Amino acid sequence: MVSSHCGLPFRGVNSDTMTTWAIKTPLSNRKPITPPADNAVAEIELRGVSRRFGSHAILRDVWLSVRTGETLALIGESGCGKSVTMKLMMSLLTPTEGEVHWSGCPVGQRTRQQRRREQLRFGYLFQGAALFDSLDVFENVAFGLRQNTQLEEDAVRAIVYERIREVGLNESICTKKPAELSGGMKKRVGLARALALDPEVIFYDEPTTGLDPIMSDVINELIVMTRSRRPVTSIVVTHDMRTVQKVADRIVMLQPLSRLEPGESQIAFEGTTAEAFSSAEPHIAQFIAGDAGSRTLDGNL
């Protein structure tokens, strides 16, 4: 273990050489983690964060924390700022106002090199998997290892094959190109790539979009299994309430600013999955049930 900029440890990354070492503990020997306590350390925090693009405001004074070890689902209508929130958490975007903190330390106080180094703690499953079309499956999964480590080829191969097996695929798939894969297989390969650097935090962007119900449930199971096998914090952006029910410890529901009064909180709900699904608040219950109701003829949709 080595120390981050704020003196907090994170696994696998040498702060001087940016070398990521091979996995030190086999997955089979890792103990499943338990749900985080209410007083768990915040892995990521948004403190009074606003984000505008020109004159167009997306987020306004958002206060939000992600506890270490939990799976947090970000839900809400299209255009409410879920994906922007995720990019702010990863420091792919900077806030117009407010601060993002990683493990209690402001991201803005880090140098570009320090941010880049600590971003290696993050894994990301893109909405469409975002595989490189010109690379085969093996090289797609190996990409982060080759770019950010000095591992020998045997070590790279061992990690790639382990990750491929971890997401339920056979090693024989490694020679295929993305064009030869189904949508579900692409998602699995994308998850294998996200896991390659042994991340401490994984971001899932609409992980089941475009998949049939069975394959969607396979991806949901993989998200659950990933957390059970390794100490990981997960943030899931989704519209799929089956995914929310299956994987989330806690839910944050955002509202589009266009539907809010000045000064009204953009966070419509924050609580456990059970609390969300039993909520009597009309706009929360309506969203979870997928009930358009009186909004069918709403010209602002």
Strand and helix order = EEEEEHEEHEHHHEHEHEEHH
- Proportion of residues in β-strands: 15-25%
CATH topology call of the domain at 39-121 and 202-207 and 233-290: Rossmann fold
Provide the CATH top-level class of the domain at 39-121 and 202-207 and 233-290.
Alpha Beta
Low-confidence stretches: 1-5, 12-36
Mean pLDDT: 85
Please summarize what this structure is.
The protein has helices at 82-89, 112-119, 137-148, 153-166, 183-195, 213-229, 241-247, 273-277, 282-289; strands at residues 2-3, 9-10, 42-53, 56-67, 71-76, 97-102, 105-106, 122-125, 201-205, 233-237, 250-254, 267-272. The longest helix is centred in the last third of the chain and has 17 residues, at 213-229. Helix content is 31%, strand content 22%.
Descriptive labels:
Rossmann fold; 12 strands; globular; disordered N terminus; 301 residues
Describe this structure in words.
With 301 residues, the chain is α/β, with parallel strands linked by helices. It has a domain at 39-121 and 202-207 and 233-290: Rossmann fold (3-Layer(aba) Sandwich), CATH 3.40.50.300. 31% of the residues lie in helices and 22% in strands. It has helices spanning 82-89, 112-119, 137-148, 153-166, 183-195, 213-229, 241-247, 273-277, 282-289, and strands at residues 2-3, 9-10, 42-53, 56-67, 71-76, 97-102, 105-106, 122-125, 201-205, 233-237, 250-254, 267-272. The protein has a 6-stranded mixed beta sheet with strand order 8-9-10-5-11-12. Strand 1 (2-3) and strand 2 (9-10) form a beta hairpin.
